[in-house]
Amino acid sequence: MTATAHDMSQHWRLISAEAANDTHHVYGTWWATREHIKAVDVTIWSREMRCGWVFYSNSLTAFIETDGSVRIPKHMVRGSNAHQFAAEEAGELLLSVVQAVADMAWIGAEA
User: Fold this and answer.
1) Is residue 6 assigned to a domain?
2) Residue 5 has what pLDDT?
3) Rounded to an integer, what distance in angstroms lies between the CA atom of residue 37 and that of residue 31?
4) In whole angstroms, how large is the CA radius of gyration of the chain?
């Protein structure tokens, strides 16, 4: 039996990113392709509520627009109502982390 392995870094990247403000801390690992970004193991921590919500690959997907900006459609935040609430509450902070992932993922890569 022969095993084969493939370097998939030309198609997707694994990126760690985080940001915090007075009310939330968003941190974790993301998969990034040229078209979308998926949470791998990402936590949105609420400082006010002293609890957090974990997002996995099936619970949060963002899209990279042609101009490089990112968007997180409401229907692409899946999971419990609490997950949707956490993503809305962390709003701009979450978006800034996703944008940092998009910006980092393809630095120096050919278009």
Assistant:
1) no
2) 81
3) 6
4) 15
DSSP state of 22: S
| Residue 4 belongs to some domain of the structure | no
Write down the residue that tokens 């609890």 correspond to.
51
The per-residue pLDDT for range 23-58, each reduced to its tens digit, is 999 999 999 998 999 999 999 999 999 999 999 989
- Provide the domain count of the chain: 1
Q: What would the two tokens of residue 56 be? A: 């996995």
Please give the model's pTM, rounded to 2 decimal places: 0.88
Q: What phi and psi values does residue 78 have, to the nearest 5 degrees?
A: -110, 160
pLDDT of residue 1: 82
The range of the structural domain enclosing residue 82 comes to 13-105
The dihedral region occupied by 99, where left means phi > 0, alpha psi between -120 and 50, and beta the remainder, is: alpha
